[in-house]
Amino acid sequence: MPYSSLKKTRWFSGSDSRGSSSSAALVELEDVSLRFVNYADKQYSLKRAALDLVLRRDAPVAKSEFWALRNLSLRIPKGSRIGIVGGNGAGKSTLLRLLARIYPPTSGRVAVRGAVAPLIEMGAGFNMELSGVDNIYLNGAMLGIGPREMRARIDRIHEFTGLREFAEMPLKYYSSGMYLRLAFAIATEVDPDILLIDESLGVGDAAFVAKAKDRLRGLLDRSNAVILVSHDMASLRELCTRGLWMRQGQLVADGPIDTVIDEYLAWQAALEPPREAS
Amino acid sequence: MDARTTARVPHEEYFPPPPEPRRPNVWMTRLRDDRRELARFWPVIQNMVVQDLRVRYQRSVLGFVWTLLNPLLMMATLSMVFSQILNSVENYPVFLFAGMVPWSFLSTSLNECAVCIIQNEGLIRKIYLPKLVFPLARVLTALVTFLLSMAAMFLLLWPMGARPSWSLLALPLVIVVFTAFVLGLGLLIATANTFYRDCGHLVSVFLQAWYFLTPILMPITQFRAEAQWRFGLNPAYYFIELFHEVLYAGRWPGIGLFLTAAAIAAATLGVGYAVFKSQEDKMVFRL
Predict the structure, then answer these.
(1) More confident residue, B43 or B5
(2) Does residue A276 fall inside a structural domain?
(3) Of B11, B128, B198, the CB nearest to A102
(4) What ipTM describes this predicted complex?
(5) Is residue A266 predicted with pLDDT exceeding 60?
(6) Strand A107-112's sheet: what is its strand order?
(7) Interchain CB contact of A141 with B (< 8 Å)
(8) pLDDT > 90: what percent of chain A?
(9) Looking at A98-112, B166-180, B217-231, which range is the least confident one?
(10) Cα–Cα distance between B142 and B26 in angstroms, integer?
(11) Where is mean pLDDT largest: A133-147, B30-44, B166-180, B218-232?
């Protein structure tokens, strides 16, 4: 496929993106690029830096660069349900991390208005030495829930996880399933404006998965905008209204979710006919 | 000639950063944003400090006593040795205490700040937190330990001649100024060590040398009169001298001394903050 045709971006002209003023957009990306520089190939030490400075030479080994996002422009108005599709390494997760303010853009402008709930990595910010309850407060504080608010919600969390009797136990003695359940419960306890979800969240046993789906749906309904990254096309079609297709850090297509997924699947099928498109 | 080999790769990340053109409004917005962000994330800092202290002492029978035991033992040894040499210094243990306890706050804070970004890699790459949270939490943890051990040691040194005086009222102010100095240095070291990991090793060596260059073990009157001015070149000297005045001599510190220390603290904190903020965005790529 020629490069130029990939670069073309079509804009979704749904009723919710037109007619509303710019202040209504929760997320605005303007020509955003993000470059990763790999420093691993060069042990850049103080000695090296000093030598470079003294000898007035430039960095001797070229750093390996990688553009994870390239010239991305995007407006996400209130009420959007966005699904992002694309192959591995297309920049989907990087985009989510950019919106979660984990990565700053190398160039361009990012405006995110409102509270962001990142369901990107489960259990980020857990301290293994602390008990379950302490971790609930700590993690809640990181997600923007103050201790007073958390106290009111803690019963709901216990009820959902079913880990009340383990609440005082240090997290390092939790099984991985318990750990995930707790992380999921805290992360979904927030009331976000913008919800970022990465991949299918593998959580616990079958009974819990059903419960988790319910809870996730509740969270989706509470959020003003949802951005979902997944390889599960069925759930994307079900949950989202607008689709984005990313490839090599660029936006290939932007439109109604079914159209985008169909295009993506068709493209994938054309690319590798023998294997089934997932 | 191959164009590829001659093409020069622009060196984009300097440390220390090249001086920026002065744009006060940028820094004003940064300060305002930080104030808002720190207010929002204050529970996180609080939580980190409390949990850090708790984790440190849980399951140890003596708990906080361990924090006291180490400097106490050190001071006992030092006062045994040095009181033989320096018989002109009265209440030598109190003198030692007044210098050593603040110093251990400084050295703990700096050692902790050096690794604060690196150790929180998992957090920084997974969730957004203002990066200032990490050095702040470390310094505050050390500050709490410092205050507690200071109070406890003062009482323990009562038989050795530690007596409260009105000048103790100046102590909070001195501690605030000293904390600003330590935080400024901590921010510098946190930035430096994130970009060049060898700074961490340098810090402990440097601190050791600095310790002996600061009049902690003996008052500067023990040195040759014509060599005493050299201590003035050591920024830590002013702070330690403040603590000596307030805790040991029981005098109000001279206004000149205090203002000098405050100016050094303000400058250090300003530079530390500016360096940290200007490099903050790049840190996540260096973890």
Answers:
(1) B43
(2) yes
(3) B128
(4) 0.77
(5) yes
(6) A64-77, A25-38, A107-112
(7) yes
(8) 9
(9) B217-231
(10) 31
(11) B166-180
Whole-number Cα distances in Å, B209 to B32, B107, B112, B204, B280: 38, 12, 18, 9, 29
How close, in Å, is residue B262 to chain A by CA atoms? 31
Q: What is the pLDDT of residues A21-41, one digit of tens each?
A: 445 688 888 889 988 877 654
pLDDT digits 0-9 by tens, B99-139: 999 999 999 999 999 999 998 888 888 888 899 999 999 99
| Tokens encoding B6 | 């001659």
User: Are A100 and A12 members of one domain?
Assistant: yes
Distance from A134 to chain B by nearest Cα, in Å? 8
Taking the CA of residue A31 and the nearest CA in chain B, the distance in Å comes to: 19
| Domain annotation covers residue A49 | no
Residue A84 belongs to domain spanning: 1-39+60-115+193-202+223-278
Are the CB atoms for B186 and B273 separated by under 8 Å?
A: no
Kindly state whether residue A53 falls inside one of the protein's structural domains. no
Shortest CA distance from A105: residue in chain B: B281
Q: Do A129 and B55 touch (CB under 8 A)?
A: yes
Percent of chain A clearing pLDDT 70 (strictly above): 81
Residue A274 sits in a domain whose CATH number is 3.40.50.300
Mark out chain B residues that contact chain A at CB-CB < 8 A.
Answer: 8-11, 15, 40-41, 43-44, 46-48, 51, 54-55, 122-129, 195-199, 202, 281, 284-286
- Same-domain pairing of A131 and A147: yes
A109 and A130 belong to one structural domain: no
CB-hemisphere CA count at 13 Å for A113? 12
Residue among A36, A124, A147 minimizing CB distance to B43? A147
Residues of chain A positioned with their CB less than 8 A from the CB of B9:
58-59, 62-63
Instruction: Say if B141 falls within a structural domain.
Output: yes
Cβ(B193)–Cβ(B199) below 8 Å: yes
Across the A/B interface, how many CB contacts are shorter than 8 Å?
A: 79
Closest CA in chain A for residue B199: A46
Residues A75 and A28 in one domain: yes
Residues in CB range of B246: below 8 A, 6 or more apart: B98, B167, B168, B170, B171, B174, B252, B253
Residue B11 falls inside a structural domain: no
Q: What pLDDT is recorded for position A17?
A: 36
Residue in A closest to B201 by C-alpha: A46
* Residue in chain B nearest A37 by alpha carbon: B285
Claim to verify: residue A24 and residue A96 sit in the same structural domain: yes
Could you tell me if residue B248 is inside a domain? yes
User: Is residue A37 less than 8 Å (CB to CB) from chain B?
Assistant: yes
- A126 and A108, same structural domain? no
Task: Give me A25's structure tokens.
Answer: 């957009």
Do A237 and A101 fall within a single domain?
yes
**Which single residue is written with the structure tokens 């409390």?**
B50
Same domain, A158 and A180: yes
Q: Does A39 touch chain B (CB under 8 A)?
A: yes
Task: Say how many domains are in chain B.
Answer: 1
With beta carbons under 8 A apart, name residues in chain A contacting B44: 138, 141-142
Averaged pLDDT of chain A: 79
- Nearest chain A residue to B8 by CA distance is A58
Short-list A60, A24, A45, CA closest to A193: A24
pLDDT of residue A10: 30
Residue B166 belongs to what domain range? 44-286
Indicate if the pLDDT at residue B180 is higher than 70: yes
Domain presence at residue B3: no
Query: Which residues does residue A36 pair with via DSSP β-bridges, in sequence order?
Result: A66
